[in-house]
Amino acid sequence: xxxxxxxxxxxxxxxxxxxxxxxxxxxxxxxxxxxxxxxxxxxxxxxxxxxxxxxxxxxxxxxxxxxxxxxxxxxxxxxxxxxxxxxxxxxxxxxxxxxxxxxxxxxxxxxxxxxxxxxxxxxxxxxxxxxxxxxxxxxxxxxxxxxxxxxxxxxxxxxxxxxxxxxxxxxxxxxxxxxxxxxxxxxxxxxxxxxxxxxxxxxxxxxxxxxxxxxxxxxxxxxxxxxxxxxxxxxxxxxxxxxxxxxxxxxxxxxxxxxxxxxxxxxxxxxxxxxxxxxxxxxxxxxxxxxxxxxxxxxxxxxxxxxxxxxxxxxxxxxxxxxx
Length: 324
Fold this sequence. Notes:
The protein is an alpha/beta fold. The chain has 14 helices and 11 strands.
């Protein structure tokens, strides 16, 4: 069985052959894989979001499919459809690209809600219904979606029900100056992308999840998770300083996301139990897409991260976190 540092280092090193920088984003994507969760990547065009997901799939050695979301995309283009066979006069099932271990929904917010909702059953139930019959998706199964900021022209906001099914929303930022210079030095005169090799497998990932499930989460930490999540609902119900900045707080999926991902990150860091600093590290990524800003907050250009940081500072940290 791989050790946490060995497994994560192997994959990060292989992905690093194609993607320079973004170390924290890569770490969070590995956490999502271990926690059996989907990931939403948001960032401006040209920040290697697509390359990052494709490289991760190659390093993992799993089946990979990319779906480019466009305004004219149909739900059947994603999940599949029934095709008529003239020879025998019957319909047969044609499975769509969603039947892969890792599915990249590229620029997911460029397709209207009808297409976006086609992923809901797949993301939640790990199955797809075609022609009245349910078809199980392969294991492991992940959706990693990219989107441009909603301010970009030609984009649609994702439905809240779909966004809530993503474990993380990760913000991909511009590289540091040194990292961008390395890109120029490495690929400025090279037209061939580096060849990546599989350094793990879907079977290994499924086996590692059993190790993650053994990570202990004490009662004080569980109470801390609940306090952080429920505080967002309290702020949505009661105005703060005369201002109602939240329309709605985080759903129970936020509590589950913090619980599951904290165990995965603790395992990756070689810890036997979850500590408050791990919860704090993951809090923004788990909740920034699960709260709804009010019009007043948007008018004042207040971001979800700003509100969540206030909640984090105002919530007492438990003292004894290794309780059995």
